[in-house]
Design goal:
This protein is mainly alpha-helical. The chain folds into two domains: about 80 residues, no CATH class; about 210 residues, MetI-like fold (Orthogonal Bundle), CATH 1.10.3720.10. It has twelve helices and no strands. It is elongated. The N terminus is likely disordered.
């Protein structure tokens, strides 16, 4: 009875927090929309000229610009964009003349698939190496893990991707070079995108677990004769994971940004590659919608990360 009441009270206390965080999303999304709108409109190049063609006359370009509403003041263009986006209508692609959501839909799913696989790689590699480094601190494995982590953080994503392609695709032939034909196409992009995050997670897990294992209650658990894996897993790791969860949540933003480079290198048909193609074509509606959707995804992930704190440690009160 008491446990049920505590759970019910805890759930009720979470509702105002969730509502506040959802309200906080509004100014963040508005700020992102303003920034991406201004940046893309300040870029050199005229989408009307690109669509009209090289041989088009000035009148043709002017008609195209008018049909795209690019001859209106910027503030009117922005309010028109926001008004339609509020009801889920991001307009039509300048490049393909298809609805923007049709352009983004399947590619967004592919990016989520790549991001999910990458975060799994990061959590597994980073978590396992971090735990072993903490348990065997100052050992050869710990020093080697530190060296590999520094290399993983320092190495550019595109360079790591090219190295993996050269070794595992060209020389060994284990995985395909590029595209999205089967699960095998997902392996190299996921490892490329997840390796830098794995390095960060590994060091955070290691430092947090080392600190926890020096606490008095850990020594008490060992004095009771509990097996070492029980002490580490039940008493140590759960308390050390609070900081690690924060890092994992922040790494989601890195993965969404890094997906642009990784998808381009591996020709992965995701939203990041679409953004690159749309920027080159000055396809304003697609770029604005894609960046806005990625921003919303990042904010939602941060909300879920905060909620996960309460599951890991019910003593944490969400304010």
């Amino acid at each position: 009875m008491g446990g049920d009441f505590f759970s019910w009270s805890h759930d009720r206390s979470m509702v105002p927090f969730i509502l506040r965080r959802l309200l906080y999303m509004i100014p963040v999304i508005i700020g992102v929309s303003v920034c991406v709108f201004l940046i893309i409109h300040m870029m050199p190049g005229d989408p009307a000229r690109i669509m009209a063609g090289i041989d088009a006359s000035a009148d043709d370009v002017r008609q195209v610009r008018h049909s795209l509403r690019l001859d209106e003041p910027l503030y009117l263009q922005y309010f028109h964009f926001v008004g339609r986006a509020a009801v889920g209508d991001f307009g039509v692609s300048f490049r393909t003349r298809r609805p923007v959501m049709e352009e983004i839909g399947s590619r967004y799913v592919n990016t989520l698939l790549l991001g999910t696989a990458s975060i799994l790689v990061a959590v597994l590699l980073g978590g396992i190496t971090g735990i072993i480094s903490a348990v065997r601190k100052y050992s050869v494995f710990d020093n080697l893990s530190l060296l590999i982590s520094l290399a993983g953080v320092s190495m550019p994503t595109f360079y790591l991707g090219l190295l993996l392609m050269l070794f595992f695709s060209v020389k060994l032939g284990w995985f395909p070079l590029a595209g999205k034909e089967s699960w095998a196409n997902l392996v190299l992009p996921a490892v490329t995108l997840g390796t830098p995050s794995a390095a960060v997670i590994s060091r955070m897990v290691r430092s947090s677990l080392v600190e926890v294992l020096d606490q008095d209650y850990i020594r008490t658990a060992r004095a009771k004769g509990l097996q070492e894996w029980v002490v580490i897993g039940k008493h140590g790791l759960r308390n050390a994971m609070i900081n690690a969860v924060t890092v994992v949540g922040l790494q989601i933003g890195y993965l969404l940004g890094g997906a642009v480079v990784t998808e381009t290198v591996f020709a992965w048909p995701g939203i990041g590659r679409l953004v690159v193609q749309s920027i080159l074509a000055r396809d304003f509606p697609v770029v604005q919608a894609a960046v806005l959707i990625l921003a919303v995804t990042f904010v939602v992930v941060n909300l879920l990360t905060d909620l996960l704190y309460g599951l890991l440690d019910p003593r944490i009160s969400v304010q």
